[in-house]
Amino acid sequence: xxxxxxxxxxxxxxxxxxxxxxxxxxxxxxxxxxxxxxxxxxxxxxxxxxxxxxxxxxxxxxxxxxxxxxxxxxxxxxxxxxxxxxxxxxxxxxxxxxxxxxxxxxxxxxxxx
Length: 113
Hints:
113 residues, alpha+beta, Copper Amine Oxidase, Chain A, domain 1, 4 strands, 30% helix
């Protein structure tokens, strides 16, 4: 059980993203409780803002790596002002889909763009 689950009502924060600014123009989004079999395991990605021409977003890290990440990032960059919430929700869904069963999240992995 993650520390948040221990002190909050059941499912009050489950799969809610936690965003943390890690550097100027860089945010790490972390999800916990995505896998009921291993609720303490977390999945995360680091999103760079203004990473390219026209203020494009980029993904600098994704742990564990997701096959769906490039498609989701392309959709975000196609509609940056409307697509951020959809991107985060899509990443959460991809983590759920690609990282369960829990064994798939065991190996630490970072994808560098």
